[in-house]
Amino acid sequence: MTGRSRFESRSVVLKSTLSPPPTLNGFQVRCKRKGELQVTEIEQPTRGYRHATAHLFSQATFSWLTGLLWVGYCSPLEIEDLGQLPEEETTERQLHIFNCIYEKEKLANALVVLSSTAKDAGDRGHPKFLYIIFLFISLFQAAAKKKNRRVSLWKCYFKSCWRRFALGGLFKLLGDFVGFVGPLGIMVILDYVAAIQKPTDNIIDSNKDQYPTWSELLSNGYFMGLIVFLSALAQGTLSQSSTHLINVEGIHLKGALQALVYIKALRLCVWSISEHKDEEVPASPEKKDARPNGTVSPPGNCPSDTKIKGAPGTDVGAITNLMSEDAFNVMSFFWIGHYIWAIPLKICVLMYFLYLKLGWSAIIGAAFCILTMTPLQFLIGKKMSSNSKAITELSDERLRRMNEVLQGIKLLKLYGWECIYGSRILETRKRELRLLDKDAVYWALLTFLTHASSVLVTLVTFGVYFSMEEGALSPGNVFTGLALFNQLTVPLFIFPITVPVIISAMVSTKRLEDFLSLPETSDPISQNEPQEHPDASDINKEDKESRIEEEKITKTSVAPVEALHNNTEMEVHSQVVMGRPQSDDNLFGLGNILEGEEHPDDEEGGEVYPEEDEAALTVERALFSWSADSTKSVLGVDDVSIMKGKLTIIIGRVGSGKTSLLSSILGEMNKISGTVKWASDTTVAYAAQKPWLLNATLRDNILFGQAYRPRRYKRVIGACDPPARHRHPPRQGPHRDWGEGDQHVWGAEAEDSGR
């Protein structure tokens, strides 16, 4: 048994060395010494998109897809069968390419602004070399400030894909010219067939040794048939190659735009995003940082050039449309971009060939067809464009109502309103379906006119030919004219379709430019570099009334220092740490907590003391504004330090600047001067809390299930500063009904009541 086992083992080793190792489910099994088996995975041939790595013939014929098609024929395709995209085809790679070009364009805009600034300063008599130095030193700083200036996306489009786009245009041009070989070759073949019907004209001396000339070769019907066949193959190959290149570049551009919009949406300032269109900012100075239902609104002191009144492209639905519809419109434009010049060129060449074969009758017939059919097609195209816009609006309305239902599904289930809101959604959907049916009718009419135009132009041309021309029509001219007229119908069908696509792409590009030029937040850590601008104490030297005088911080309260600056209220916040000595928490305020009363913590030995531990954040003599182009500050912070490992609480009345202070720390406001310094090992996270209320009275929302004690209740109400906000109606008082959907409840009120 021992010898037999050794023999079997050796035979396996011998077999493995003389023949290929056995395979099992994509694994290779090898026998090693001492009876050990080595199992290795066989490297499968690469699947997926392999156009770039395929050879020239495979690229021209797309034969690299044969394996995938065979797998799909044998069994249903799975996601694993598609393989992985090459790195150069991924969205990340395309975003990197497009974003580099976009950033260069923004930097070029900043250079233009700086150059004009230096030129204006030089014209005023100042030394130019100082401004040249300023130009290079302040380049990146100014570029960062001017980064929200509108950049021409059309330049970025063509700079990112002009090579392949131009190559696709060359292939299309060659394919269109090769396509003329077929109609012109038909006449040669028919003339050759007519010529061989006369035997006397085709007697060839077989004893004479001679080679055919090029004219004789091209007049041979068999050779011309071969040329027509090869030209059809070449036209298909060139057209498909052009379509493939253009479609791939359009997909690349769409993916890059979607990723860019997504990244921009993450970097938008909070006040740049609005929930509803055409919604004004609250006019009340006490509620200018708040909004119904706790949503964020642009600050009331935001300058007019940056204030957004529900601008298109800023709410969640509009951002979704930018990533889906507008990016698709730009991609569609690049798909049909070459038709803009190819269709007029092809029509001119076709008219020239028709003139050579049929004379002026072809010009008259084509002109009649163009003058009658093209206006009708443009009219239908205009109707389709307006109908498509209406479909989009109804689709947005339907999605908005569905989102409203999903957001308030709890209340709908509670009150049994499912049928009411469901009927509204179905009504909107029915209106949308009616418009979709109308769109289908427009497409049917457009297709009918296209096919009718080929018949009409043929009838008019040949009818005019017999009345104007004296000679008879030869079969070659007839069939050649019909083939050329058949090629003329395709441009006449496509050209009216390109106009709405071009208009949609222009509108979408403008929307994308507006969105990408919105102000965005800067990295909070990047604010560590101090800016040498006018001192924080001199906010506006031209206006002496707007100087800020810091008040002393007392034990009982922290009083805000207000100054009128262009009818806006500005706060200068000073550092203060309040609490018990043994507590690890600190607090600084933006307004009086209880005027004329001692702080409750004072009864238990609380005191105001400076914090000397290591600071996670330090703000020193800083001025902030909402606009990057504005030098007028709307928020001033004298000295604020937030210590590591400590709980910091900001207290203040509605509109005192709490949200603005957080926005300035997070980089959502532009820093004019001063220092905002984060610790080197600090990471920043912002978790905003949405106010939530019970569908009950104000008292129930404040008590939240606890027992009602009148003295404690009044003390809590007083600590929340009720004179400015919670003034009960005379007949309702604290028993007034509130809820999540209460339109009369402002964000700060809901947040204070829901604590």
Structure description:
The chain is of the alpha+beta class and 755 residues long. The chain is built from 20 helices and 12 strands. Strand 2 (27-31) and strand 3 form a beta hairpin. The protein has helices spanning 2-18, 56-61, 66-74, 91-123, 128-137, 139-145, 153-178, 181-195, 214-218, 221-267, 316-335, 339-358, 360-407, 409-415, 418-468, 475-516, 658-666, 698-703, 710-719, 747-753, and strands at residues 23-24, 27-31, 37-41, 562-564, 569-574, 578-579, 585-589, 607-608, 615-625, 635-643, 647-651, 670-678. Among the domains are: 2-41, no CATH class; 45-84, no CATH class; 89-149; 529-678, no CATH class; 698-753, no CATH class.
Compact description:
Residues 520-529 have a biased composition (Polar residues). With 755 residues, the chain is α+β, with helices and mostly antiparallel strands.
Which key terms come to mind for this protein?
755 residues, alpha+beta, three-stranded antiparallel β-sheet, 12 strands, 52% helix, 8% strand
